[in-house]
Each structure stands twice: as structure tokens, then as C-alpha cells.
């Protein structure tokens, strides 16, 4: 297939932008990329898709996502974190069935694909949600998924015993760690390599030091990467201090968690020494600005991390603390938040943010050799943004237009592994109406099973 007459943001090593550009896709890979005129001559017998007036970007990489939580969108708005987690999210998730987990995964994936995300990292999928169903949803939809199965052996969080998980979510070493290893053996590399299985460790305080060390050893032995929430809120920092006066990164170092195969999420409450350690160990960081602002967790020191050479990627987090899985909205917030936080309008420019959402995310997932930029030989994962709209015109820099103006609703086409999965803004691999109707019905059932029907509702009177 030959895609022509688009503006192409390659994010290659030279950061080339090709006007009137073309991409020739053969099987699952980009066979050639360049000017439309040249590729039309070289591949005159190929099927042609005319994308004049569009911008092609590498498929967006969402490196922090809770697929189960999309079915809880709007169920815990405007609450402080303890109430949000202990009184709403954990009780709701603790009443999920495997059928709910599958429906939620499909809802999440449908939204991500429609808004330009071609690869995601599920951070902490509980056993009760049905990991097989998550893998099945990835396989059927055509998306690329790195799937973290939860690892834990404690039902608490941080140093406060009041932060207790719902009993329905508590798992032991056998179910979580060994279960993750079993799922890695069963699913890793399936769906033409689109499925990768990870360890999704719980936040420190929810895992014993011994289990962290065992998981880290298995990670290195079997090549299973690790993702983990870390230093998200002030209570996390207090927990680390209570553990032999550790900082976040000295604690992670003591449990062998740091390294190029580890992706740490949020990382708001760090000091300069922590940032140095991240850079020295090659550990990756995920910035989730919408979640951090909505839950009032704080603002991550992204400019400092980038300056130190830390690879920082972007994630939407779950829908109850963001309300959307749209990475383009996340990109925009990441581009403007640090300007006001630092008082410097040049902090984290648009180009840097787009790198974080593409090649930076691919690097965090260990996939930058095959995705994250548009280059010959790489996988054909890309999104097409339709700029032929009043609200998107005029534009002078395609990167600025994508980062500061476009949203997921402007995505017209998405290709993953060389296969179109969205065309004209419509899903090709799933019945969209069936997906959202089932998820909406199941969400209400979960709320009722959790006994929260009187709380998960509008605050103003509905007549």
C-alpha cells in the first residue's frame, strides 16, 4: 500500500519532516519513505491512498495505562487520593469479573486506537480481571500491547494501614508473580509479536522487599521487563523514608529494581540525587500530567530529568484520574504544564513532547528498533491526523499543530503492523457500538455489586 501527498513527521534521527511525503508499506513494515513524486514512480502498480491535507505521525506510545479502569470513567471525580483509591476505585475493581475485564480492555483499546495510540503499556492487570481476556482483546483489535500482570504480596499501600486494598484484589506470590511468569510463557510474542508480557509490580508498600528481589532476578533471567508506580504522592516519599531513611531511588536500588528494563511511573517526589541515579542506571520514567494534576499529586520534574539524560515517556493513566485515553490531549498538557511550573515558556517544547510520546515511549518499552519513528525497515505503525478543519487551520509548524491543536477526534486513519485498523475515524477490527454498549452496561453492574450506587452518581439533582 502506498500512502501519498501527506506531511510526514518522521521523528527519525535527523527529525526530518517531509512535505508532500509518501510511505510505502509492504507486509508489516515501511519499505520506503520519501517524496510522493519519487515513490509514485517507483511503485506505480501499488494501491494508492491519497492523504493530501493530512499529517502522518508515528503511532503514539502510551506507556502507562490501566485498561480495567476505563470502565470506571467518571466514577471517582474530584476526590482526594485516599478516598479516590480506598473508597471508590479498589472497591469497584474488587468486584470485577473476567467478563468485565475483557469488556473494559476492549473499550480502552478502541478508544486508544481511534485517537492514534498504536502501542500501550498496561501497568497492573489483576488476576481477577482475566489476563487471557486482555491478551485476546489485544490480539483481536490489532493494537500492540505490553501487558503488565500485577505482582504483589501485601494488601496495603505506603506506610498507612488505612490504605488497604479491597479483599477482592489481594493476591499472593503464587497468583501474582508465578502467574505472571506463566502468562509470559503462554502469551509473550503472540499476535505476530504484538503482545509482550511484563511484570506490573505494585507500588512500594504493596510488595515485600523479598518479592521485589525475586521478581527482579526473574526479570533479568527471563527477559521480562518491569513497570511500577513510584514516588507518585507525598505518602510514597514518607514510606521510603520509613524504610531505613531511603529516598525513592535508593530504595529501588536496594531491591534491584533499577535498570534499562524498568519503567517507573509518575516519579513526582524526587530529589536531585534520585534523578542522577535514574540517568546512571538507564531506568525509564513515565510522565502522567493529567493524572498528577487531577489527583493533586504534584508536578514531576520533567525538565530536570530530561536535562540529566533520563528517558521520559508519556502515559494517560486510568480513566478515573484522567477521564480520557487520548494521548494527544496528554501531549498538549505535557507541553504547557511545565511552562507555568518553571516560569519558562521554552521549557519542554512541542518537539520534545512529541518525542516523549513516540520514540521515547518506544525506547522505554525496548521497542525503539522497530517502532516510535517512521523509517524504512521499521514496523508500519502510524496515525493520520486530518487537518482539513476550521479548528485546525492555519498551521505553520506540523509539530506545533499536532501537539497544541489536534486531539484524538482529529485522527482519521491508524495503521498497526502494516494493517489499517481505523479508517475515516471508524474502527475496522471491532464493532464500536457493541463495545461501548457492553462496557456501559457492565460498568453499572459493577457499581451495584460494589454497593456504591448511591455514591457513583451526579452531585446535582437529576430530575
Task: Give a quick precis of the structure.
The chain has 463 residues and is α/β, with parallel strands linked by helices.
Number of DSSP strand runs: 19
Which CATH top level class of the largest domain fits?
A: Alpha Beta
Query: How many discrete structural domains?
Result: 2
CATH-level-2 architecture of the largest domain = Alpha-Beta Barrel
**Rg:** 21 Å
Strand proportion: 15-25%
- Mean pLDDT, rounded to whole units? 97
If helices are DSSP runs of H or I spanning 4 or more residues, what is the number of helices? 16
Given as residue ranges, the uncertain stretches (5+ residues, pLDDT < 50) are none
Largest sheet: 9 strands, mixed
Specify the helix fraction band: 25-40%
User: Span from first to last CA?
Assistant: 53 Å
General shape: globular
Fourth-tier CATH superfamily name of the largest domain: Metal-dependent hydrolases
CATH topology of the largest domain: TIM Barrel
Oligomer: single chain
Backbone structural class: alpha/beta
Description:
The protein is α/β, with parallel strands linked by helices. It folds into two domains: 2-58 and 374-427, Urease, subunit C, domain 1 (Roll), CATH 2.30.40.10; 60-364, Metal-dependent hydrolases (TIM Barrel). Helices cover 37% and strands 23% of the residues. It is built from 16 helices and 19 strands. Helix 3 packs parallel to helix 4 (131-141). The longest helix is centred in the last third of the chain and has 18 residues, at 432-449. The termini are far apart.
Amino acid at each position: 500500500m502506498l500512502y501519498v501527498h501527506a506531511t510526514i513527521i518522521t521523528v527519525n534521527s535527523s527529525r526530518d519532516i517531509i512535505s508532500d511525503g509518501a510511505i510505502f508499506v509492504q507486509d508489516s513494515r515501511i519499505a520506503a519513505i520519501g517524496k510522493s513524486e519519487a515513490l509514485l514512480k517507483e511503485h506505480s502498480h501499488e494501491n494508492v491512498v491519497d492523504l493530501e491535507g493530512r499529517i502522518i505521525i508515528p503511532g503514539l506510545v502510551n506507556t502507562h495505562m490501566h485498561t480495567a479502569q476505563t470502565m470506571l470513567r467518571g466514577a471517582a471525580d474530584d476526590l482526594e487520593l485516599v478516598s479516590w483509591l480506598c473508597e471508590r476505585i479498589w472497591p469497584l475493581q474488587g468486584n470485577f469479573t473476567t467478563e468485565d475485564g475483557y469488556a473494559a480492555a476492549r473499550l480502552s483499546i478502541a478508544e486508544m486506537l481511534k485517537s492514534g495510540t498504536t502501542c500501550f503499556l498496561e501497568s497492573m492487570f489483576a488476576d481477577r480481571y482475566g489476563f487471557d481476556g486482555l491478551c485476546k482483546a489485544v490480539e483481536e483489535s490489532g493494537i500492540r500491547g505490553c501487558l503488565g500482570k500485577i505482582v504483589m504480596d501485601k494488601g496495603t499501600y505506603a506506610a498507612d494501614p488505612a490504605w488497604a486494598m479491597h479483599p477482592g484484589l489481594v493476591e499472593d506470590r503464587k497468583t501474582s508473580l508465578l502467574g505472571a511468569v506463566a502468562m509470559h510463557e503462554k502469551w509473550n510474542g503472540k499476535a505476530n509479536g504484538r503482545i509482550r508480557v511484563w511484570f506490573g509490580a505494585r507500588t512500594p508498600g504493596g510488595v515485600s522487599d523479598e518479592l521485589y528481589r525475586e521478581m527482579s532476578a526473574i526479570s533479568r533471567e527471563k527477559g521480562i521487563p518491569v513497570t511500577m508506580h513510584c514516588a507518585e504522592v507525598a505518602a510514597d516519599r514518607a514510606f521510603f523514608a520509613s524504610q531505613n531513611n531511603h529516598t525513592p531511588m535508593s530504595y529501588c536500588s536496594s531491591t534491584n529494581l533499577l535498570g534499562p528494563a524498568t519503567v517507573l511511573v509518575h516519579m513526582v517526589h524526587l530529589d536531585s540525587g534520585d534523578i542522577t541515579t535514574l540517568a546512571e542506571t538507564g531506568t525509564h520514567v513515565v510522565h502522567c500530567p493529567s493524572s498528577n494534576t487531577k489527583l493533586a499529586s504534584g508536578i514531576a520534574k520533567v525538565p530536570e530529568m530530561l536535562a540529566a539524560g533520563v528517558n521520559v515517556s508519556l502515559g494517560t493513566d486510568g480513566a478515573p484520574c484522567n477521564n480520557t485515553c487520548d494521548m494527544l490531549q496528554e501531549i498538549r498538557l505535557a507541553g504547557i504544564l511545565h511552562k507555568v511550573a518553571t516560569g519558562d515558556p521554552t521549557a519542554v517544547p512541542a518537539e520534545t513532547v512529541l518525542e516523549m510520546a513516540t520514540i521515547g515511549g518506544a525506547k522505554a518499552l525496548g521497542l525503539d528498533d522497530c517502532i516510535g519513528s517512521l523509517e524504512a525497515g521499521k514496523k508500519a505503525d502510524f496515525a493520520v491526523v486530518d487537518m482539513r478543519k476550521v479548528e485546525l487551520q492555519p498551521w505553520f509548524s506540523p509539530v506545533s499543530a499536532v501537539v497544541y491543536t489536534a486531539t484524538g477526534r482529529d485522527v482519521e486513519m491508524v495503521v498497526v503492523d502494516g494493517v489499517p485498523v481505523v479508517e475515516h475515524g471508524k474502527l475496522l477490527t471491532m464493532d464500536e457500538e457493541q463495545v461501548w454498549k457492553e462496557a456501559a452496561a457492565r460498568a453499572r453492574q459493577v457499581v451495584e455489586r460494589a454497593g456504591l450506587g448511591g455514591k457513583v452518581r451526579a452531585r446535582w439533582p437529576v430530575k
